[in-house]
Each structure stands twice: as C-alpha cells, then as structure tokens.
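Incident review: delayed structure delivery

Summary: a single-chain prediction request sat in the queue longer than the usual turnaround. Root cause was a stuck worker, restarted by the on-call engineer. No data loss occurred. The affected request and its eventual output are reproduced below so the record is complete for anyone auditing the incident later.

Affected input:
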Amino acid sequence: EEITPGTSDYRSILTKLFSSKPEAIILNAYSEPTFAVMVKQVRSINQDIQIYGLYYASSESLLKENAKALE
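Output delivered after worker restart:
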C-alpha cells in the first residue's frame, strides 16, 4: 500500500492491512519521523505484530526516543 507524502495518520491503511491478519509487516518510510509515527500507530492497533523496517529501524536516535513502541 502506498502512502502520500505528508500524510500523518496511517490508521485507516493499517486497519485495512491488519484485516488480512499478517504475521509481520515491513515499513518503508520516507523519513525517520514518519517511521516513528507509523510504528506508534501500528502498536496502537496491534501490540503483537512483528515490525520490520528497511532504513530507519536501526537508527540510534529512533531507538532511544521510541524504545517502548519498538520493543
């Protein structure tokens, strides 16, 4: 599913995605702040889903600021 740059609420797309009951998801965000928002919104819908990220998942600042959501 593609996301329009500048979007900040991904819950409708995530809800649609979760309706297929995936075992894991891959987030490919276009910026670190966007990745952080996406992770928080994913966690607000599904606490147990495995999240993989392509670019920002191992960012030191992201890990420090969002440790709880990224556990």
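Verification: The CA atoms of residues 40 and 54 lie 17 Å apart.
Action items: add queue-age alerting; document worker restart procedure.
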